[in-house]
Amino acid sequence: MADHDLTPPPRPEACELCGRAAPLTRHHLIPRALHGKARYRRRFDRVERLTAILWVCHACHKHLHAVLGERELADHYRSRAALMAHPQIQTFVEWLSTKPDGFRPKKRASRRR
Predict the structure, then answer these.
(1) Would the pLDDT of 21 be above 60?
(2) pTM to 2 decimals?
(3) Is the CB of residue 52 less than 8 Å from the CB of residue 74?
(4) How many helices (H) and strands (E) does the chain have?
(5) If you average pLDDT over residues 3-18, what whole number do you get?
(6) Of 58, 68, 87, 2, nearest to 29 (Cα)?
(7) Which of 5, 8, 40, 44 can pair with 48 through a Cys bridge, CB separation 3.0 to 4.6 Å?
(8) Phi first, then psi: what are they for 56, rounded to 5°?
(9) Which residues pair with 28 in a beta bridge?
(10) Distance spanning both ends of the chain, measured CA to CA
(11) Run of H or E residues at 63
(12) Taking the CB of residue 56, how many other CB atoms lie within 10 A of it?
């Protein structure tokens, strides 16, 4: 397998969720903690596990992991469209998109159980 197959998508100028030009982090659509689990190794090849990435700001990234567990992310929210269909994610992203680039929310959402 060639190394270029594992190249993540290029870093955009703005968060792929809220659209703000804030510092970006990689959100693995298939969480890295699950890459070694047999269930996910069978379902997704190595290239997909390593390159399915969304570039998001810190606030969006923290919110994603506060609202959704890793298995839930891997099983049901492996795309931008799926994440944006989640009511708590959509509401947060719409709210955050109106804030300046350097704005950081003070309170984390609690993970629903």
Answers:
(1) yes
(2) 0.86
(3) no
(4) 6, 2
(5) 85
(6) 68
(7) 44
(8) -130, 155
(9) 53
(10) 40
(11) helix 58-67
(12) 25
Closest residue by Cα to residue 94 from 26, 11, 20 = 20
Residues 6+ apart with CB under 8 A from 60: 15, 17, 18, 27, 92, 93, 96
Tell me the torsion sign for CA atoms 86, 91, 93, 94: positive
Phi-psi region of 19 (alpha: psi -120 to 50; beta: other; left: phi over 0): left
CA dihedral (77, 84, 29, 57) positive or negative: negative
3-state DSSP assignment of residue 71: helix
| pLDDT tens-digit map of 60-107 | 999 999 999 999 999 999 999 999 999 999 999 999 999 999 898 887
Cβ neighbours of residue 76 closer than 8 Å, sequence gap 6 or more: 82
